[in-house]
Design goal:
Number of strands: 15
Structural class: alpha/beta
Shape: globular
Largest sheet: 11 strands, mixed
Order of helices and strands: EEHEEHEHHEHEHEEHEHEHHEEEE
CATH topology: Peroxisomal Thiolase, Chain A, domain 1
Number of helices: 10
Strand content: 15-25%
CATH architecture: 3-Layer(aba) Sandwich
Oligomer: single chain
Distance between the termini: 22 Å
CATH class: Alpha Beta
Radius of gyration: 20 Å
């Protein structure tokens, strides 16, 4: 698989921008919030990693947030016509919810009129505003959305459709998604405990993050990966982790890399019972116990559709600072011989595998590489 280079990356997450988030990681100053959601017939409070400045699903707030992120990532004006914009998100057209409410419930409501505004329409509008290529794409594959967007962008560059691609991951608070996770008993009571025996669920998070791909020389590259859609159930993979094994092995194969060459692995590590068990079982079938691996969701939450771009950007930023972030709160690991690192580890280059195993059986592993410039 031909590689593409990673030219720029930027983050807006619960701890702030890229540098603020990196500082929070280094200094153990992670801030979480509380969000009220609707659960059955009552309101409940759940922990949440919220953006410092609220982005609402109305009045084009998301459009302006995407525009702000895009402004930080734009290539030179002469290259924009050869630059595609690809968005990864789990957010649906929020007006669809209004349409359902207007038709399936008995109580009388105002007639529904579709607004026809969505993430995809915003991507097309932004592409036109900044003179990017007419082509845009929005990928919605739950937790793997922006990771799949990166792989798709890489494929398109390698076959010559475009010279550059801007990939943006978008996730803000969704009442439907939050209530759904709560109803499935997947929300943690207080903290995320990746791969710990006493883990009790995930904590959702908001984020916008962006990565620019191209062929220009740079120290970071996306070597490739593998994505599939295969699952025993719509909400999880099998506890054996065999689906995850397949994804990791084929990602290694596609990149011409052996497992022993991986410097470190960024795990998906949601903190849920089934997902963590499946992933750790899979890791144990592909890698030796000496593997260095970590989880980033205790720092920023599970940002669903944005997690692909966000977590790769955070990992790159940390390695650029000379370390791999430790994993919080894994005191009693599921498999004692496979324990994520509990202290920051020195590292300034190498090969890194990034896992994303999500709802609907969507699974992807990407491999990135940093060489000293």
């Amino acid at each position: 698989m031909a590689k593409v280079n990673i030219l720029k990356y930027e983050v807006n997450a619960s701890q702030g921008n890229l540098q603020q988030t990196l500082n929070a990681i280094k200094n153990d100053r992670i801030v979480r919030s509380i969000k009220k959601i609707q659960a059955s017939m009552e309101e409940v409070e759940i922990p949440y990693y919220l953006l410092k400045e609220e982005i609402k699903q109305e009045q084009r707030s998301i459009y302006h947030a995407m525009r702000d992120m895009l402004l930080k990532l734009l290539p030179e004006e002469s290259n924009r016509s050869q630059t595609a914009l690809i968005v990864g998100t789990s957010l649906v057209d929020w007006h669809l919810v209004d349409a359902i409410n207007a038709t399936v419930y008995d109580d009388e409501k105002e007639p529904y009129t579709s607004q026809k505004q969505s993430i995809d329409s915003y991507a097309k509008e932004l592409s036109k505003e900044f003179g990017l290529n007419d082509f845009t794409m929005t990928i919605n594959t739950a937790c793997t959305s922006s990771a799949n967007a990166l792989l798709e962008a890489s494929n398109m560059i390698n076959i010559g459709l475009f010279e550059y691609a801007i990939v943006i991951g978008v996730e803000i608070f969704s009442p439907i998604m939050s209530s759904g996770f709560y109803a499935m008993d997947l929300i943690a009571n207080d903290i995320v405990k990746p791969f710990d025996i006493d883990r009790d669920g995930l904590i959702l998070g908001e984020a916008l993050a962006g990565i620019v791909l191209g062929k220009d020389d740079t120290k970071w590259s996306l070597e490739g990966g593998f994505s599939n859609c295969h699952s025993q159930t719509i909400t999880s993979v099998s506890q054996s982790g065999d689906e995850c094994v397949e994804v990791m092995q084929k990602a290694l194969q596609n990149c011409g890399v052996e497992a022993k060459e991986i410097t470190a692995l960024k795990a998906h590590a949601t903190g849920s019972h089934s997902n963590d068990l499946a992933e750790l079982n899979a890791i144990s079938k592909v890698f030796e116990p000496s593997l260095t691996f970590t989880a980033l969701k205790p720092y920023v939450g599970h940002t669903i559709g944005a997690s692909g771009v966000l977590e790769i950007a955070l990992l790159m930023a940390a390695v650029d600072e000379g370390f791999i972030p430790k994993t919080y709160f894994c005191e009693k690991p599921i498999l004692p011989e496979y324990r994520p690192i509990s202290e920051h580890k020195k590292c300034d280059r190498g090969l890194f595998m990034c896992n994303y195993f999500g709802f609907g059986g969507n699974n992807i592993s990407l491999i990135i590489k940093k060489e000293l410039s």
